[in-house]
Design a protein that fits this description.
The chain is α+β, with helices and mostly antiparallel strands. It contains one helix and four strands; from the N terminus they run E-E-E-E-H.
Length: 73
Amino acid sequence: MYLLTVQTPCTNLAFANAIGLTSRNNILYRDFDFVTFHQQRCKVLKIVPVDELKMKQDETKRKSTTSAPASSG
């Protein structure tokens, strides 16, 4: 899993139902490839691997701290 940073403005990317990626030989290159959606393309500026295990642990921790009952005292 990877986190992509794209060049702005990249209008309505958050609302796209589907996205595509341009690539060369099944490899995505920053500064050369694009995220495509709704007849738009946004240049990929940064590609960062995501630590899925840490992400899940952080989410579990966040949920446990926000769902704790408030103290009444």
